[in-house]
Amino acid sequence: MTAEAPAPITPPPAPAGPLSGAVAVRSSRYALRTAALGYLALLLLAPLALVMWNTFEQGFGTAWEAITSPAAVHALWLTTLIALIAVPLNAVFGVTAALILVRRRVPGRPLISALIDLPLALSPVVVGLALVLVWGRNGWFGPALDDAGIQVIFAVPGMVLATIFVCLPFVVREVVPVLREVGTDQEEAAATLGAGAVQTFWRITLPAIRWGLIYGVVLTTARALGEYGAVRVVSGGIAGRTETLTLHVEERFQGFDLVAAYGASVVLALLAVSTVLVMNILNRKGRAGGHHGL
Fold first, then answer.
1. Among the CATH numbers 3.40.50.300, 2.60.40.10, 3.30.160.250, 1.10.3720.10, which is that of 67-288?
2. What is the pLDDT along the chain (294 residues), one digit of tens a residue?
3. Is 264 helix (H, G, I), strand (E, B) or coil?
4. Is the Cβ–Cβ distance between 55 and 266 less than 8 Å?
5. Which candidate, 143, 22, 163, places its Cα nearest to that of 81?
6. pTM of the model
7. Of 64, 146, 191, 293, which is most buried with the most CB atoms under 10 A?
């Protein structure tokens, strides 16, 4: 009679080591990145690729002819002109408002701050309608302007006003945090040394806020170039006169001139991509120079 051999003892599974944990973290990170990139590709890259394809489907010559048509060139010129007027005015207002909110003790600062943010809460169409009620022929100032031979609504001045209004908060909201971060020590030191307010601003304050100001100007430019709703209400959309590039896209699309509509959309997309690149470059330069407000 032989004795039975004892059953082999199975060792317990080894606990997961740090290597397997790192692999799991890395896998989850890659999964999140893939999901985020897929989401962006679905919402942004796919429509842009479709627009590009439809633009050049009939050949580069046809697309170029549509982009360089007199109506398209005038729309691009008018869009650029409005941005060149609105952006500097908003930059001056933004810096002034930021200085008032941060450096001065004025009554009603919360109300002023809320009013500055109002364009972010209002629909651009409501902004355009409000401008018509104020500056239109039957508005508050319309009759007096008509008597003086000045037309605001359905003309370039009204389009500039609409663009200024919708772009109002960007420079302010970029400069205010920078002013709070840099403090007042250098400005007070300059004042004790005999520097005036203007000299202190140009030599101390402006260099300290330059990256916030530039970043706000870039955001304002992007918003001005792509504005549609408010400008649509106050412009009248007259081709060759009061038609911006965004309005030109709509007008060409409604007229079933798809190549011209897609071509103008490509121009707008290139302007947007250029703005994003400028923002990223300025962001890196600002951080390399020690600015943390961007």
1. 1.10.3720.10
2. 455 555 555 555 555 555 566 667 777 788 888 888 888 778 877 888 888 888 888 888 888 998 899 999 999 999 999 999 999 999 999 999 999 888 888 787 888 888 898 898 888 999 999 999 999 888 888 888 888 888 889 999 999 999 999 999 999 999 999 998 888 888 878 888 888 888 888 888 888 898 889 889 999 999 999 899 899 999 987 777 889 999 999 999 898 888 999 999 999 888 888 887 887 787 777 666 654 443
3. helix
4. yes
5. 163
6. 0.81
7. 293
